[in-house]
Amino acid sequence: MDKEYDMHLQAWLNHQVKAKRTKGSSKNPKQEYVYKGFGDFFNYEKRLEKVDISHKDVTTEQKKMAVVAERVNKREEVQ
């Protein structure tokens, strides 16, 4: 189910990154991309700040469980 979700999310992002808008007058319309660069589409620094804030409330037990989950996921990918 997670892989299916990831595939659909990727398809949506591919659609979004190709988005265009019309500029200019009705007599001379021009199409331009909504996102001119990757930074316009995804703000890496802002996303990092958001992730750091959510990690401050993580308990030691949750960190241990995350490590276990990561190990299980890696084992699953190898098979």
Search tags:
79 residues, mainly alpha, two-stranded antiparallel ribbon, elongated
Short description:
The chain has 79 residues and is mainly alpha-helical.
- Cα shape: elongated
The whole-number mean of residue pLDDT values reads: 84
The percent range for strand residues is: 5-15%
Physical arrangement of strands within the biggest beta sheet: 1-2
Helix content: 55-70%
Distance between the termini: 17 Å
Number of helices: 4
Compute the number of strand runs. Answer: 2
- Integer-rounded radius of gyration: 20 Å
- Topology pattern, helix = H, strand = E: HEEHHH
Biggest beta sheet summary: 2 strands, antiparallel
What class, by secondary structure content?
mainly alpha
Spans of at least 5 consecutive residues whose pLDDT stays below 50 are none
